[in-house]
Amino acid sequence: MFFNSIDFAIFLPVVFCLYWFCFNKSLKIQNLLLLAASYLFYGWWDWRFLSLIVFSSCVDFFIGIKLAESTKDYQRKLLLSASIIVNLGFLGFFKYFNFFVDSFTQAFTLLGTSTVDPILLNIVLPVGISFYTFQTLSYSIDVYKGKLEPTKDIIAFFAFVSFFPQLVAGPIERATNLLPQFYRRRTFNYAQSVDGMRQILWGLFKKMVIADNCAFYANDIFANHSNYSGSTLLVGAFLFTLQIYGDFSGYSDVAIGTSRLFSFELMQNFAFPYFSRDVAEFWRRWHISLSTWFRDYLYIPLGGSKGNTWMKVRNTFIIFVVSGFWHGANWTFIIWGALNALYFLPLLLLKRNRSNLQVVAQGKYLPSLKEFFSILITFTLTVFAWIFFRAESVTQAVSYVNGIFSLSLFSIPEVFPIKVLSLIGIFTLIEWLGREQKYAIEDIKKVFPKPIRWAFYYLIIVAIFSFTGQEQEFIYFQF
C-alpha cells in the first residue's frame, strides 16, 4: 500500500477514526488495532511475507525475555548470537544469496577455473526487510547491553516491530525510543495532529511533485546514457540527486506525520542534507536513523575514531562499505559506500569531521561566500557518488561517468526540463528558509497569519494535483 495511493487515503482515516473514537478507552485494544492495521498495510503487497515479520518478532521477543533471565555470560552471548544469526540470516538469504553465488562464479571464471552453471534462486525480496530486521536486532542488542528492560507485552512488541507508518522504509526506530510509547496511555492532541497533517502534505509534495517529475527524466537519461551528451548526463545525475532526496525524505515526512496522528513521535530522518558544508555533515543529516544505527552498533564497537590511524581508516571504510552493501546486492552500492568513505577520510584524519555542527547560515537569510562554495563542493561530490548508486551495473556507471567527462559536457543539453527545474527552484527556496526546523514548513504557523498559511496549503495541494509526475514506486522499497 503506497502512501500516495487511493488505498491509503481510505485506510488512514478508517484506522484513525477507530483508534480515537472506538477504542480510545483501552491502551491494549489500541495497540491491537495498530498491530492489525500494520499487518493489513504490509500484507497489501504480499500476505505471504507476513510470516517473516511474525517469526522475526517472536524470535526477538522471547530472546529478550531469556536475556533477562540468564545470569551466565556465555548463555547471554549465545542468545544474542541466535538473534543476530536469525535476523541477518533471513536478510542475507532473501537479499544477497544470488549476489554471492554470482560473485563467486565470476571470481573463479576470472582465475581461469571453469565452473558449472550457478544455482540462482528466483527470490522475491520482501518489502522493508532491511528496515524491520535492523529494528528488531537493535532491540536484542540493547537488552543484552542492559540499555532496555525486555518487554513481556507481546502485543506492544509486535506492534512496535510492524508499526505501519515506518514499517516499509523507516525511519529505523530504536526500541528505546518507540517501544515505551506503546506502554503509555495516549490522548488525542489536536496541535500534534495538525502538525502531522502539515508534514504529510509536505512529504507528498516532495514525493509526487519533485521526486516523480525528476524520475521521469532521470530514468530515461540513465537508461539511454550512451545516446546523450555529457551535459545531458550531468542533468540526469542532478535530477536523480533531487529524486532520491524528494522520494526518501518525502516518505519519512509522511511516516513521521502519520505517526503523530496517533500520538507517536518518530526520530527525524533527514535534516536538509544538501545544505551540508562537508561530507561529515552530510552524513549527520542524511538517513539519520541508518547512519546512527551503524555508528552505535558497528562503528563504536569496532573502536570508532579511537586508536591508531590504521584503525580509524579501517573502521571508516567498514561502516561506509557495509552501509552501501545494506542498500543492495550490487557492486555499485559497495563502490558508492567506498566513495563516501574516501570523501570522509580526510575530514576524520584532520579532525575536521565535527567542524560544522550548527545549521548553515543560522539566523541569516544567505550563507557566506565560504559556506556557499563549501555547500557547492559537497553537493557536487554527492551527485558524483549518486551515479554509482543509481547505475544498474559498474560498467554502466563507468560509461556514464566517461560520458560526462567528455567534450560534449560543454554542449547544450538535449534534455532541459524547464518546468521541473522551476519546481526544484521553488522547492529549494522553501527548504532553505525552513532549514532550521525539523521539516521545511514546520513553523509556518509562527511566521504567517492564518489566511496566508491556508493559501499556502491550498497551493501545495493544487501543485500536487496539477504537477504530479508519473507515479513511481518509492525507491527505498527495494531495500
UniProtKB/TrEMBL annotation:
InterPro entries hit by this protein: Ac/AlaTfrase_AlgI/DltB (IPR024194), AlgI (IPR028362), MB_O-acyltransferase (IPR051085), MBOAT_fam (IPR004299)
Topology with respect to the bilayer: Multi-pass membrane protein
Highest taxon, organism lineage: Bacteria
GO term, biological process aspect, one: alginic acid biosynthetic process
Transmembrane segments: 6-22, 51-68, 80-99, 119-141, 153-172, 331-350, 371-389, 409-433, 454-470
Keyword Ion transport attached: no
Gene Ontology terms for molecular function: acyltransferase activity
Subcellular location: Cell membrane
Keyword hit for Cell membrane: yes
Gene Ontology cellular-component terms listed: plasma membrane
UniProt keyword terms in alphabetical order: Acyltransferase, Cell membrane, Membrane, Transferase, Transmembrane, Transmembrane helix
Family: Belongs to the membrane-bound acyltransferase family.
Listed PANTHER family: ACYLTRANSFERASE (PTHR13285), PROTEIN-CYSTEINE N-PALMITOYLTRANSFERASE RASP (PTHR13285:SF18)
Protein name: MBOAT family protein
